[in-house]
Amino acid sequence: MRLKLLILCFARRVGAQPRLRGLWITVCAGIAVWGCSSPPVAPLVETRPTIVSLNPCADAILAEVAAPSQLLAISHYSHDPRASSMPLEQARRFSSTGGTVEEVLALDPDIVVAGAFLPPDTAQAFERLGIQVETFGIVSDLADNAGQVRRLAALTGQPERGEALVGRIDAALAATRHDGAEVVALLWQQGGLVPGEGTLIAELLARTGFASHSAARGLGQGAYLPLEEVLADPPQLVLAAWQERMLTHPALRSLEGVEYERLDPSLLYCGGPSVIRAVERLAEIRANVRERASTSSAPTNRGAKKVHGSVHDLDEMKENPFVLSMSKDAFSGGHVS
User: Strand 111-115 and strand 210-212: pairing?
Assistant: First the structure.
């Protein structure tokens, strides 16, 4: 309205003063062009999707490849010191969720990252609410692990962070690789179960200088190895990845030449940055075994009634909820890439 009044007033003065008519024409032309021009366009701002993770293995990867503002919450397992696959101080920088539809809906993410065992009804509920659902199973080898890291990084819109993490993992693998004499090791898990070939932990053991005692006996993933068979043909090293009562059996502890070390069970199933921690721990264990062997003054005779080595912290190892969260994949052979 004010613009119209200004034009009207100016037009009257032009009519009274012919020498202003040229200026009037110029002003009118300018106003016409200005009125017909498009409004200014605001610059586009890149936005990345927000994510809620219900997968304890994906938690650790997303903490590395997503911006903090993108990762709205991680699984409650990662806040549990008995279950976390990532350092607690890192996990506690993020909110946690139990994974109910109501909790996730309140966070209003763009994407939910879940495990392969996410109930179909829950997945469908998320999708009906317009939330994208992406499922990730347990990685079976290092190539699968690199693919999972890259896929998660791509979901965040920051693939370069995924490549940086893959580079760190490759560097750790190179630094801990051992091509010399192998240590025959039995990795004993909950209930006397052993890992089979074609698992990530089996590949990490092989790369860091260990030969699988159970694989040499034809045992596959999740097979049961009774104490009697171990006593009849003991390994050089028992890796305790659980509160395994069989390890405290007097007959086993009396075997000379058998070493015992603890391996955190959270290092058995997850890829991503957990691979770095796993190979560094395995390299440490191998060095410990080599050092004890070099300082031993008497030759070993496995089967003799003399204790050699010790069980590390076995009495303190409690049932770990982390493995409960992953067990449907870990022992069923299920995998979703």
Answer: unpaired
Class of the CATH domain delimited by 51-173: alpha beta
Dist CA 108 CA 102 (whole Å)? 10
Judge if 51-173 and 180-319 fold alike in CATH terms: yes
Pairing of strands 223-224, 193-194: antiparallel
Identify the CATH class of 180-319: alpha beta
Q: Is the dihedral of CA 302, 178, 289, 199 positive or negative?
A: negative
Domain boundaries, the chain: 51-173, 180-319
Structure tokens at 175: 């630094």
Q: Which residues pair with 51 in a beta bridge?
A: 71, 111
* Measured distance CA(174)–CA(159) in Å, rounded: 23
10-residue averages of pLDDT along the chain (337 residues): 41 46 48 48 67 96 96 95 87 95 96 94 94 95 97 98 98 95 87 84 95 82 80 88 68 81 88 96 92 63 37 41 49 39
